[in-house]
Amino acid sequence: MNELIAINYDTENPTVSGRELHAALEVKEKYTDWFKRMCEYSFTNGVDFTLVSVKSETNNPKNPYTTITDHSLTIPMAKELCMLQRNEKGKEFRQYFIRVEQAWNSPEMVMKRALDIANANVKQLQIKVATLSVDNEIMKPKADYFDELVERNTLTNFRETAKQLDVKEKSFINFLIDHKYIYRDKRGKLMPYADKNNGLFEIKECFNEKTQWSGTQTLVTPKGRETFRLLMLKATA
After folding, report:
1. Rounded Cα–Cα distance for residues 157 and 219 (Å)
2. What is the CA radius of gyration of the chain?
3. Which of 149, 155, 153, 166 has the alpha carbon at shortest distance from 200?
4. For 73, phi and psi rounded to 5 degrees?
5. C-alpha–C-alpha distance, residues 63 and 68, integer Å
6. Cα 141 from Cα 127, distance rounded (Å)
7. How far apart are the first and last CA of the chain?
8. What 3-state class would DSSP assign to 188?
9. Torsion angle of alpha carbons 86, 89, 95, 98, nearest 10°?
10. Sign (positive or negative) of CA dihedral 164, 190, 221, 201
11. Where are the alpha helices (DSSP H) in the chain?
């Protein structure tokens, strides 16, 4: 099929430029006036056409380009505009748009679009799977470490303990530091004073041979949680 005018297939349905159609139909009337008059035939913005801004060359060397308004027309609207011209050019282009529609709605084109959508969905799924795989590789060493670290139903970290005691984590940690139960070492890790531990804390260390992940963490025992609960109640009494 010989192309009389450029068809845009980048949208959900094919469209054509209003200005290009205006020029192709050899309409003498100014484009903006012509389009305004055509819209009196109940064409709707967002349904039959959409506004677009395009760059246009000028004869001004200081400002070689300017922005003008164009309209992206659906093929059904373009057909109707051609019919409204009531001349041979309008008839010629209307017949052309009919052929465009027929080709667009042919079984081959419908199948091609379905395959394109399916391929696009598969590609997006592959991207998501790849992203999740990367995230999993990043997080897995930490997950393995903490799985090996403690059974969470008996030992809790400072944040979990504070939550169970219904106090803010920062306030809880400051309370323990002020009462000389814990201190921060040179690396900023919270460590218990040996002389005040007495079963209140456990320091867990883990090394994962597969991932080479290692680390330590100070955890509060059930005895420690109850001790600190009573101490904090006494302090606020």
Report:
1. 5
2. 36
3. 155
4. -100, 140
5. 14
6. 23
7. 90
8. coil
9. -80
10. negative
11. 18-24, 31-38, 75-85, 88-104, 107-149, 158-164, 169-178, 222-236
* Most confidently predicted of 89-103, 106-120, 140-154, 184-198: 89-103
What's the token pair of residue 208? 């994962």
Q: Alpha-carbon distance 73 to 48, whole Å?
A: 6
- Residue 108's pLDDT is 81
Answer for the pair 88, 25: CB distance below 8 angstroms, yes or no: no
- For 133-182, how does the pLDDT look when each residue is reduced to its tens digit (9 = 90+)? 766 665 555 555 445 444 445 788 899 999 999 999 999 999 999 999 99
Fill in the amino acid letter for 52: V
Lookup result for tokens 């017949």 = 95
Task: Provide the token pair at 226.
Answer: 């109850």
Top pLDDT among 214 and 222 is at 222
Instruction: Report DSSP state, residue 64.
Output: -
Q: Which two tokens stand for residue 3?
A: 């192309």
User: Residue 10 is encoded by which pair of tokens?
Assistant: 């980048």
185 exposed, middle or buried (CB, 10 Å; 0-12, 13-18, 19+)?
exposed
Residues 6+ apart with CB under 8 A from 9: none
- Best mean pLDDT range from 52-56, 89-93, 103-107: 89-93
Cα separation, 170 vs 159, whole angstroms: 9
Answer whether 145's CB lies under 8 Å from 206's CB. yes
Task: Say if residues 21 and 97 touch (Cβ distance below 8 Å).
Answer: no
Phi, psi of 16 (to 5 degrees): -140, 150
